[in-house]
Specification:
Helix 9 crosses helix 10 and helix 11 crosses helix 14. The chain is globular. 48% of the residues lie in helices and 15% in strands. The chain is α+β, with helices and mostly antiparallel strands. The structure holds adenosine-5'-diphosphate and magnesium ion. Adenosine-5'-diphosphate binds next to strand 9, strand 11 and strand 14.
Length: 696
């Protein structure tokens, strides 16, 4: 297998090896320089690159090409054009020009624009991102692109991300120069996204309207067994799952995606896949492709991959851990080394990141806010809605000593001795794990853990990059003018840690005490997505993005509108689905069962008048009560849902869904779930929680 993997790996990707082999030397040099340094591409090489790409793609079986982009729908978009170009009246040749590679035109009017695009100007453009490799998939050459309006405003997730990578690199370089790095021309921002997901049998999935329409179950009484035995996490893979995972790995490797780790997760039927990290924009594109392949390959195995944050109530939901670091000239800037207390550059960078997270807690929260993720954050299975930073015992002690001006005693490098002669004694990591922290330092990278499993990771990284760039900018402004650099750096580190210590928290993020303590510290606690969205346009946030050139106020305003709208649409679809399922599936099923029981009682009495029908009576009465409350629940939900949908202001509408519609949805669910446990299995119209989670 070993050789086979190295042969297939990246075989459908127009990667560095292919470019070196197929492009003229000068063109290759110019293109790789653009990729490595983030500099603008020389347009004169575009025709040559396009032609080489086309020849390669045709050899791989491609007949079409597409600009592949990330509109604000959360999923990717593509429109396929054939390479053919007519010659004379009955012949064609395969052609692909530099112009077609660099720029595409797309009708922007059907994608969310948040009011950005006036109706008379529907034109939109896609623009090649040369730093993310093109690839061939299903007979089409895919070209990763950015997507903008006719007037140049970003209509996608990639454009602000690329801008944020550029500003962070530039500001980080200013810091590195102060420490004598004259070599680095670019700072690379690396990301590894660990992806969680659920798997369900396709036949069961098809019978659940809620899964089909909304991606999560809107009803369902708990199964007798959940995750309490902790027997699924890292447990042996079921044969069917193992076969799916193996096919998935292979498909991803072919696409040059370094799928590395796979295992069972905490909840039944929940799993995780982690790739090896890559440069941020590539990591984003690859995560989108990974999600797409998860769904596709699952179908081939008669399965469905659920990427929703909370497919099932009562067991853990799915998130995505965004591992993030900075790299210059092959050196990880977040590596503290053996003696972090002497690593001033590391401490300054650490201070900058802590400051960034503290200054822009609200934006970090916004970046992971969407309807699905509201079911996880703060639900004792994922980080709380309060943003804080975990640095571990060692760095915590070091930061304390810096703030207090006391001597740092150094960390005890504890050894692990299991007392078994044949097992070697080894050194323990100095940072233990803290699973409850939203933003944790894990040795040489930060892990942002609030992301939802279904989301595009571009926005969280855009926010993080921009906020850290702003810290670096402020630091560089101070330090570049300093007479005594060493003293100025020491002062700045101390001041920064002192000012932003409140965001550091190493304790249990799930506890009630933390909520109280966080409040005392003045940290924001934005419980719902809608609470979070309301902070997005705060003047400090607008000034961050606009001063850094990452997003203009107009671009932000359009996003704000889309956030609110998208939230409302999701809840609206969920409410409508509940109405349909309750009135057309569940209530009729319970009524049928009631009739059967009533019939049984009548028949019993007919045979023998003094037979007790107490059980039948009880079942009929209790089930009838549930039916009545489900029925009235449906009626109430109908009224509020249609009122909510009629509100014209996006923010007011979203707020109404949170305050009025969601509580009614929860009420309706409770009535139906109570019905489920009273109704005979054979009458229940859909697969149960137990069926779905334990019979894959
Ligand atoms: P952990 O056990 O702490 O989760 P792993 O080594 O398993 O750490 O890594 C988890 C994820 O973090 C992987 O996707 C990995 O590629 C990624 N990762 C590791 N180092 C870096 C880094 N320097 N920058 C970004 N991501 C990284
Ligand atoms: Mg992890």
């Amino acid at each position: 297998m070993d050789r086979r993997i190295s042969e297939i790996f990246g075989s459908m990707v127009f990667n560095d090896d292919v470019m070196r082999e197929r492009l003229p030397k000068e063109v290759y040099k110019s293109l790789t320089k653009t990729i490595a340094t983030g500099r603008t591409i020389d347009p004169s090489i575009a025709d040559v690159v396009a032609n080489a790409m086309k020849d390669w793609a045709v050899e791989k079986g491609a007949t079409h090409y597409t600009h592949w982009f990330q509109p604000l729908t959360g999923v990717t978009a593509e429109k396929h054009d054939a390479f053919i170009s007519p010659v004379g009246s009955c012949k064609v040749v395969m052609e692909f020009s530099g112009k077609e590679l660099i720029r595409g035109e797309s009708d922007a009017s059907s994608f969310p624009s948040g009011g950005l695009r006036a109706t008379f100007e529907a034109r939109g453009y896609t623009a090649w991102d040369p730093a993310s490799y093109a690839f061939v998939k299903d007979g089409t050459l895919y070209i990763p692109t950015a997507f903008c309006s006719y007037t140049g405003e970003a209509l996608d997730s990639k454009t602000p991300l690329l801008r944020s990578m550029d500003v962070l690199s530039n500001q980080a370089l200013r810091i590195l120069r102060l420490f004598g790095d004259t070599q680095s021309k670019h700072v690379d921002i690396t990301v590894g996204a660990e992806q969680e997901y659920f798997i369900i049998d396709k036949k069961m999935y098809d019978r659940r309207k809620d899964l089909v329409y909304t991606g999560r179950t809107l009803f369902g009484a708990p199964a007798p067994k959940g995750q309490e035995l902790e027997d699924h996490y890292f447990g042996p893979l079921k044969t069917r799952i193992a076969a799916f995972m193996s096919d998935l790995d292979e498909a991803l490797w072919i696409m040059g995606i370094n799928a590395k780790t796979k295992h069972n997760e905490a909840a039944p039927a929940q799993h995780e896949l982690a790739p090896i990290y890559a440069t941020t924009n590539i990591a984003v594109d690859q995560n989108l492709l990974t999600m797409e392949y998860m769904k596709k390959i699952a179908e081939k195995h008669g399965l469905v991959c659920l990427l929703h944050e909370k497919p099932y109530a009562g067991v853990n939901g799915s998130g995505k851990h965004n591992n993030w670091s900075l790299n210059a000239n092959g050196k990880n800037l977040l590596d503290p080394g053996k003696t972090p207390e002497e690593n001033v550059q590391f401490l300054l960078i650490l201070a900058a990141i802590i400051k960034a997270v503290d200054d822009y807690q609200d934006l970090m929260r916004v970046s992971v806010a969407h309807a699905g993720n509201d079911h996880r954050l703060g639900a004792n299975e994922a980080p709380p809605a309060i943003v804080s930073v975990f640095v571990g015992e060692e760095l915590n002690a070091l930061i304390d000593s810096i703030v207090d001006g006391t001597a740092y005693k150094g960390a005890k490098k504890a050894m692990m001795d299991l007392g078994i002669p044949t097992v070697p004694v080894f050194r323990k990591d100095t940072t233990d794990r803290n699973r409850t922290s939203p933003f944790a330092f894990t040795g040489n990278k930060f892990e942002f853990r609030m992301l939802g499993s279904s989301q595009n990771i571009a926005l969280p990284n855009t926010v993080l990059n921009t906020a850290v760039a702003e810290s670096f900018r402020q630091f560089a402004d101070v330090l570049e003018g300093a007479d005594n650099l060493d003293a100025a750096v020491a002062k700045l580190i101390r001041e920064t840690f002192t000012a932003h210590k409140r965001i550091i928290f190493d304790g249990n993020g799930y506890s009630e005490e933390w909520e109280k303590e966080a409040k005392k510290r003045g940290l924001s606690n934005l419980r719902t997505s809608v609470d979070a969205y309301k902070t997005f346009m705060d003047s400090k946030n607008v000034s961050l993005f606009s001063s850094m050139g990452v997003m203009s106020e107009t671009e932000m305003r359009s996003r704000e509108e889309i956030y609110f709208e998208n939230y409302s649409k999701i809840i609206n679809i969920e409410a409508l689905t509940m109405i349909v399922m309750a009135s057309r599936d569940y209530i009729p099923a319970a009524e049928k069962y009631i009739a059967l029981i009533a019939d049984a009682a009548a028949k019993k009495r007919a045979i023998c008048e003094d037979l007790s029908c107490a059980v039948e009576k009880d079942i009929v009465r209790r089930l009838s009560d549930c039916v009545a409350s489900a029925y009235s629940g449906v009626e109430k939900l109908k009224v509020e849902e249609s009122y909510a949908a009629s509100l014209t202001d996006a923010k007011a509408r979203a707020e109404y869904y949170v305050s009025k519609v969601i509580p009614l949805m929860e009420e309706l669910r409770a009535s139906v779930d109570a019905m489920e446990v009273l109704t005979a299995s054979e009458f229940w119209p859909v697969p149960t929680y137990g069926d779905m989670m334990f019979r894959v």
